[in-house]
Design a protein that fits this description.
The protein is an all-alpha fold. The chain has eleven helices and two strands. The chain has a two-stranded parallel sheet with strand order 1-2. Helix 4 runs antiparallel to helix 8 (188-218). The termini are far apart.
């Protein structure tokens, strides 16, 4: 395969984890060599046809077992949850490539780089989990991230608002405190892994901010007002609750006005 949409289709419509990772890295290597094309006559299949592995068992967020970081079992469960987030992020990066055609070439190359970095994160976490005696799929995982993809399958602005600029941006808010906890107990391996992921995720959210503003410009929309409307439309409960990491979110393309709105308890 030398076509980015063929790679995307192969990753989205197979439930084989190993093949998905191989295809993602192959596509990234083809891009680096200048061998990847952006032309395709293949139809875009409905999002309902995307396939997932049989494991882990997917539960609604409210049905997930509650575990704390204070025990080895809790730490293993935490990293299993992070592995699932990174695995779903591979799907989300490929799906935005596959589903939304007619964008500039840089749009597709940006999200392919994101897909490849998410695959690297997933592989690193799986190795970390195996040292704890656990494999990805051994525990249940939540289905919330993909629900947002289904909700925005026909709405690129909605997808950019909800995935990189809402759900992924939450990682910028919560991960620094989790890193501090692992640092406090001297778990340097976990600190290094989470720091690597956090550093990359700032860039992923920034790309979401960039393309959100680009698409707003294409349609003559004001970005800050559009962001507020889309979050209210797609986020259950009106908008996410803080605290928010203003410093990292500003680096990732949020405006002070957007952050003021998020922090305001009145929707």
């Amino acid at each position: 395969m030398k076509n980015v949409f063929d790679f995307a289709a192969a990753c989205l419509h197979s439930d084989n984890i190993a093949e998905k990772l191989v295809h993602t890295h192959e596509a990234s290597q083809a891009l680096a060599k200048g061998e990847l094309t952006l032309l395709s006559e293949l139809p875009v299949l409905p999002i309902a046809q995307v396939k997932f592995p049989q494991r882990p068992v997917l539960l609604s967020p409210r049905d997930m077992p509650k575990r704390r970081l204070g025990s080895p079992e809790g730490i293993a469960a935490f990293f299993h949850a992070i592995a699932h987030v990174e695995f779903m992020a591979i799907y989300l990066a490929w799906d935005i490539i596959y589903r939304f055609r007619g964008m500039p070439e840089a749009f597709y190359t940006d999200w392919l780089r994101v897909a490849d970095e998410e695959a690297q994160h997933f592989e690193l976490i799986c190795t970390h989990l195996q040292k704890m005696g656990l494999n990805y799929g051994d525990l249940p995982a939540h289905s919330g991230l993909w629900d947002h993809a289904k909700d925005t399958a026909d709405d690129l602005l909605g997808r950019l608002a909800m995935v990189p600029r809402c759900m992924e941006a939450r990682g910028l808010d919560v991960t620094p405190a989790i890193i501090a906890k692992f640092k406090h107990v001297g778990d340097e391996a976990s600190v290094a892994l989470l720091t690597r992921i956090l550093t990359d995720e700032v860039g992923h959210v920034e790309r979401g901010s960039y393309w959100f503003k680009f698409v707003c410009g294409q349609h003559g929309l004001e970005p800050e007002a559009s962001y507020r409307l889309l979050i209210k439309k797609y986020y259950q409960g009106g908008k996410p609750k803080g605290p928010f990491n203003r410093e990292m979110r500003i680096i990732a393309g949020f405006s002070n006005a957007e952050l003021d709105w998020l922090e305001n308890t009145i929707t």
